[in-house]
Amino acid sequence: MCGIVGYIGERKALPILINGLKRLEYRGYDSAGIAIHNGEKLHVHKKKGKVADLERDVKDKNIDGHIGIGHTRWATHGEPNDVNAHPHVSQNGLFVLIHNGIIENYKQLKNFLIDKGYQFKSETDTEVLVNLIEYMYLEGGTDAEMAVRLALSEVIGAYAIVVISTNEPDKLIAARKSSPLVIGLGKGEYFLASDATPIVEYTNRVVYLDNDNIAILKKDEFVLKNLDNQELSPIIQNIDFNLAAIEKNGYDHFMLKEIFEQPDAIHDTMRGRISSDGTMVRLGGIMDVMDKILKAERFVIVGCGTSWHAGLVGEYLIENLARIPVEVEYGSEFRYRNPIIKKEDIVIAISQSGETADTLAAVELAKHNEATVLGICNVVGSSIARETHAGVYTHAGPEIGVASTKAFTAQVTVLSMFSLMLSQEKGTLPYSDFKYLVKELQHIPGKIARVLEQNAYIRDLADRYKNATNFLYLGRGYLYPVALEGALKLKEISYIHAEGYPAAEMKHGPIALIDENMPVVFLATKDKIYEKVLNNIEEVKSRGGRVIAIATEGDETVRKMVDHIIEVPHVPEPLAPLVTVVPLQLLAYHAAVLRGNDVDQPRNLAKSVTVE
Ligand code: AGP
C-alpha cells in the first residue's frame, strides 16, 4: 500500500506535495519522492527514508513549478532504496509516473520491452509501466493520454497512477483500477491523492475515481473518461470528516482498521501464489532453496510475541501436513541457550517489522552455524528480510497499531501455503485433501468478513467483562496458539491479566483459579478433539466459572453449555486459527477502548522491539 499525491494549479507544487505525502505516510514509509515540471524542466528527487528526509533534501533546491506528483512507498517489488523509490522516469525521459498497486504481469511486459531495447534501473513493476507508456507513445505516434490508455489495456493487476508527459507538461493524467484515487476540485487547481487526507485542507469537493477511469487534469479543466475513451460525468461529493479520522478511513483506531483489513490482507498475501484453479501453491521467494528445504530433517521457527504464536501454528501445520519435525523458539531464548543447529536445518524467522532484535540475532546465529534461513516478514527490505537466504513476504500492508492483528493472520496464511506446498512435494497429503484445503484457504477472506459482522455483539461482551482482573484462554491443537494470542492481545492493550493455556492442562493447576470472577474464553470449534474441549468446558462450569466460547456456527451443544457464544463459520481444522483469532482481537480491542486505554500505542510497548 503506497501513498500518492498530485497537484496542478497556480500555487507552487512542492509544499503541497510534501505536506500531502506526510498525511499519507501511514500508508507506507520506506522511501519517498517527488517530480515537478516548471514548464521547461522536470525535477525528480527521490530517496530511501521518510518524507521528512526527502523534505530536507529538496528544501534548498529552488524547485518552482505548479504541476507535480509525489509518492511515499510501501515496497512490494524491490527493496526500499533510492533507485526503487518513485517517481519513475521512462528511458527516454518522456514520461514520469507514480503508482500504488501491483502489476501482476509485469515480468512478461518487462521482457517484451527488453526485446524492444528498453533497459531497466530498478526492480519495480512501476518502471515497467512507465516505459510501456513511452513505448506506446513512440510506437503509436499518439498523444500522452492515448499512450496511457493503450499501456493500461495491457496491464493485469491493481493500479492508481498519475503521469506527467514532458512533451505535454500542462496536464496530469491519472488512472485507477482497484487501488484508490481521489481528485480534489479547487478553484483553478486540482489535487490528487490516495485518499482525502491530503486534500481536505484545500477543498472538501472531491471525485472518487472508479475502476477503469482516466482523468485528464489541466489548471482549469478536468475531463473524466473510461478506458474506451468515452467521456463520463464525474460524481462530485463533499468530504464531511476531519483529518484525523481520514487517516484511519473512519475507524476510531488503526488497530480496528487493521482488524477489518484482514480479508484484504489475506487475499493480497495469497495473490499470485495460488493458481486460479486451486491446483498449485507456489512461494516464489523460496524456490531457490527448495532442494535444501525438502532435504531438511528439522525446521526451527524463531520469533517473538505474536510472531512466535504464528510460528506455533506453523509447527502444527507443517508437522501435520508435511510431516517434517518442527521446533518453535523464542528469539530471545534461542540466541543465548547455545542451541544445537546443524547445517541441514532450515530456520524460519517470523517478524512483522523485520527489525526485532532478538529474532535478528537468532537469524545471525543460525547463519553462523550454516543453517539455511528463511524469513516471513511484512516489511520489504527490512533487516531480517535482508539477512535471510530466502523468504516470503506477507502483503498485509503497513501495520500501524502496536498490537499485531492482520500481520498475524497474514503470517499464518503464508505458513498454511508453505505447509500445503510441502505436502505435495513430499507426498504426505492426498491430492484431494490438498485441493480441498487450498479451496477452503481461498474462502478464508470471505469467512473472516462474516466474523467481522459480529463486531457490535463482541463489543457488548467486552463491555460486560471489561472490569475483570483476570482471564483464562483455553484451546487445544491448532487452537492452543490462538488461545495464547488471544491472551496476549487482551493483556497488551486492555492491561487485564490473561493467560493462554492448552485446555487439558487446566487440570494441572490453573483450575484452582476458576471462580465466578474469572472469565474463561474457550476456543471450541468442531474438530477431532472437540468432545474433549466440551469436557473441559464442563469442568469450568461446574466450578462456577463464566465461559465465553468461540464455536462453529450452529453449534447448539456449546450454546447450551456456556454463558456466551461467538459463532464462526466452519473451516477445516488446519485453517481454524485464521477465523477464530478474529473475535479475540475484537474482544481485546473493545475492552481496551472501554477501559479508556490508548489502543494504538499501549503503555510501555513499541511497535518494533529493536533493542534487547
Ligand atoms: C504483538 O501484538 C506485539 N506487538 C508483539 O508481541 C510483536 O508481535 C513482537 O514484538 C514481534 O514483533 P515482530 O513481528 O515485528 O518481530
Account of the 3D structure:
- This protein is α/β, with parallel strands linked by helices.
- It has 20 helices and 25 strands.
- Residues 304-307, 351-353, 356, 359, 402-404, 492, 608-609 line the site of 2-deoxy-2-amino glucitol-6-phosphate (AGP).
Measured as a percent range, the helix fraction is 25-40%
Shape: globular
Proportion of beta-strand residues: 15-25%
The Rg value, from CA coordinates, equals 26 Å
Structural class: alpha/beta
What is the element layout, followed by pairings?
Blueprint: E1 3-8, H1 13-23, E2 31-37, E3 42-48, H2 51-58, E4 67-73, E5 88-89, E6 95-103, H3 106-115, H4 125-140, H5 144-152, E7 157-165, E8 168-177, E9 182-185, E10 190-193, E11 205-208, E12 213-218, E13 221-226, E14 231-232, E15 237-238, H6 243-247, H7 254-260, H8 262-270, H9 290-295, E16 299-303, H10 305-322, E17 326-330, H11 331-334, E18 346-351, H12 357-368, E19 372-377, H13 383-387, E20 390-393, H14 406-425, H15 431-452, H16 455-465, E21 470-475, H17 480-494, E22 497-502, E23 519-524, H18 530-541, E24 546-552, H19 556-561, E25 564-568, H20 576-594
Helix pairs in contact: 3-4, 4-5, 8-14, 8-15, 10-14, 10-17, 14-15, 15-20, 16-20, 17-20
Bound molecules: 2-deoxy-2-amino glucitol-6-phosphate.
Protein traits:
612 residues; alpha/beta; seven-stranded antiparallel beta sheet; 20 helices; 25 strands; globular; binds 2-deoxy-2-amino glucitol-6-phosphate
